[in-house]
Design brief:
By secondary structure, the protein is an alpha/beta fold. It has eleven helices and nine strands. Helices cover about 50% and strands about 15% of the residues. The protein has a seven-stranded mixed β-sheet with strand order 7-4-3-2-1-8-9, sandwiched between helices. A two-stranded antiparallel sheet has the order 5-6. The longest helix has 26 residues. It is elongated and about 85 Å long. The two termini are about 40 Å apart.
């Protein structure tokens, strides 16, 4: 039975994206799945449902490519998602393709792959954790955990040097001891997760200094903002395994075209989970 003209027109862009995915798979020999989110979305636990659908028809042991675009999100959810793909790929290769950016928890996911495919437009980011905090006046904003701890350490050191320093006394009293403890635990968790992911595929059996790489990605003295760009050259300098593709490469152009189609579909508040046989659109405004 043929699709009606109106149905075909309404779903034409989805068909085009899925045909493009098939073409890319034919060129690489890898299964291609995609997760592309708008700028108001985040990696979260609910993504497991959608990712499971993309993995449903992939036989275990097939090489898998994940095209990923995300501003970041929950690092525990990121671990779950990358673990699912890694288990599906088994001993076959698992690559993450970053057409535009995979920041924060997205960078953590990239650390769990065999290699990261990047071009001139690609960027990763620092992995120091961020938390949503609400002030007493109701204002909600993101807090950089390491910056909070650095400030606490600085004022504590000043108070130790001069116990009568009124400015240091006043500032130290503003810090919540429970929050300091919680934030220290979050920093340790992010570092240990980064090391674990790097050792799983990219640098198995001690083939790379995962501790040094994780430490550099969390270095707030080197990366002064959480959104700071880490392009492919810097990613390679950090020691990450990057497969560079020049922008004029026909395969990269196909990835970029697919990403553009999906990103425009995602708008700001949606995520697109897509393969050549499934296309899911998730409302994910945060």
């Amino acid at each position: 039975m043929k699709h009606t003209p109106a149905f075909a027109a309404q779903n034409g862009m989805r068909y085009r994206r899925q045909e493009l995915i098939k073409e890319i798979e034919g060129a690489t020999g890898n299964q291609l799945i995609c997760c592309v989110g708008g700028t108001s979305t985040a990696i979260r636990r609910d993504d497991v449902l959608f990712l499971s659908d993309l993995l449903h028809n992939i036989d275990r042991g097939q090489p898998i490519d994940l095209l990923l675009h995300t501003p970041g999100g929950d690092m525990d959810a990121a671990e779950k998602l990358v673990s699912m793909i890694s288990l599906a790929a088994s001993t076959a290769a698992f690559r993450i393709i970053v057409p535009d950016f995979a920041k924060s928890a997205g960078t953590l996911m990239a650390l769990g792959s065999n290699s990261i495919v990047m071009s001139d437009s690609s960027e990763l980011g620092p992995i120091d954790p961020q938390v949503v905090t609400e002030e007493r006046n109701g204002t909600v904003h993101l807090t950089a955990i390491q910056a909070y701890l650095d400030a606490f350490a600085d004022f504590s050191a000043a108070l130790k040097k001069d116990p009568q320093d009124p400015a240091a006394q006043a500032m130290v009293e503003k810090f919540d001891p429970a929050r300091v403890h919680e934030y220290n635990a979050a920093i340790k968790r992010a570092r240990s997760l980064a090391e674990k992911l790097l050792a799983a595929r990219m640098f198995p059996a001690g083939s790379g200094n995962v501790t040094a790489i994780a430490g550099q990605l969390m270095n707030t003295k080197q990366y002064l903002s959480h959104g700071q760009m880490i392009g492919y050259v810097e990613a390679q300098t950090l020691g990450l395994r990057v497969d560079y593709m020049p922008p004029e490469d026909p395969l990269w152009q196909a990835y970029w075209q697919l990403y553009c189609y999906q990103r425009l579909e995602a708008e700001e508040r949606f995520k697109i989970f897509e393969s050549h046989y499934a296309s899911l659109r998730e409302d994910d405004a945060v």
